[in-house]
Amino acid sequence: MKVLSCTSRGYGAIFFFLAVCVLVFMLRNVDVLEPEVNSIFFSLRVSSDPDMSRSFCSFQPMSPQDALEERLILDSTAWPETPLLPALISLEQTSDPAHSTFTILPGRRGGQWHVGDQLEVMIQTSDFQGRPKKSGGDFLLARLHNRMLEAGVAGKVVDLLNGSYSAVFSLLWEGDAQVEVTLVHPGEAISVLDRLNREQPDRIYFKSLFRSGSLSETTSCNVCLRPTQQPLCNHTDLRTGEPWFCYKPKKLSCDARIDHAMGGHKQNLKAKEEKLFQSGVNMKVYIRASGPASVTVLPQKEGQLEGKSSTVTSGPSGYYYQGLWRALSGITVRQFKESAITECLKGKAVHMYGDSTVRQWFEFLNAALPGLKEFDLHSPKKAGPYISLDYENNILVTSRFHGPPIRIVPVSTSELRYIANELDGLIGGTNTVVVFGIWAHFGTFPMEIYIRRLQSIRRAVLRLLDRAPDTLVVIRMGNPKALTLAVSISNSDWHSLQCNKVLRAVFKGLNVHLIDAWEMTLAHHLPHNLHPPPPIIENMVNHLLSYICPQKDGKMFVSWGGGKGNAVL
Questions:
Q1: CATH superfamily of 86-189+281-298
Q2: How much is the pTM?
Q3: Positive or negative CA dihedral for 304, 305, 311, 317?
């Protein structure tokens, strides 16, 4: 009996231990066990995942394949860390463009450069005391240009992680070529931006009006909402699983939500951090040359092979010459005038989805084609949707904003559409063109949210191409913009660059085409702007039209990453 008693007690202890383990597991995974998205509202719980300990964003479960891809993308796009946290460092210890310099390295031909060579520049950053930096992480841009020739090309910057950087340029035109290097942000500012996206994804906040009869109430909404005692309305999209939540009104149901709008923004920087974002001091400031800042490029030698660099193997996606964009992806960018655009689009339906930078293309086509008439849908001017029709030539052009988060004028909830759902509604085919660009409204969120949105869109693109392989899909990338403190902490160029890396990774290998708005803006002489000026937009639209109507006297090749070749995306 003693043996049985001891055994019973032993089993009891084991069962108790297992029960505790199960309870702990459930508590630690409460977000995974949350009700399905068709629940009307629920109380917010904070994720207990150690990786999310600094954030109150709760991510939906993913398939193992998508989760692995997300981790690989985050690892591959990780930014070099600064050795000290910004809170522990003084401004004097950060990179100062006024004390930093760049130097053109001697060419492999004894100081001569020819078209087809590569020019390499070394950049040495120093702090505000003039002391050379010993660590990397700064965000630098580089451009080679000739204002008289209206020529320009973006350079490839490589962080050597010791305070020095290499910038490599392809030499693509004869004549003078001026080097321009810009410090966008010191590495410590990047650390601040990364922390803000983890800890304060709600620093731009949204709101919705709920109304039933004469009763109305406005509450805050977002992808991520801070935990309170107030229950949440779960407006997660049923088809895509895209998350969106609002605090539940006190006297109205979740179904009474009638619109979406941006509420405002909060600027919660720690002490001294504002100094890391000073226009004219350490934010988008040119770095001077320690010697000559330009070279003279001679004609390409007969039988000359293209020069190679030890640090960079891929070239730019294109360059400007005489103000016109010349793609290096194998496609010839044609120049389309009014009649040529009409002829190209005759019998076609062009569907555009995304943010206001995509709407610019819609507006350009409306202005360029007298036969294209916009139908008045009585939509909000900045929000759309928009539709234009050239009845005589059977041309249809539409434009619609992507789903939340969108920072625009109030929009009816009935007009909030996710790109993936819109693509699923298309038949597709030879005469269907799909254009989308989605990046500018994600600058305050952890990159996981952007990755998951693109994965959702990719699944819809694959479904579209499966049922209609001849559908043309073109993606507009993000571009650099003018920066202020407010813009930097809500929609920084650094975050846009990271979004472009993610977009390339997510759509790599698919039969889609990229228009590199980043390089097309960076290589141009006009100032950076969230909405690039007309000459850049015209070049972008010509690039788009060249995909729709390629030259008939030669095969159209496409390569990933801007190099020459014939690999399909």
A1: Immunoglobulins (2.60.40.10)
A2: 0.86
A3: positive
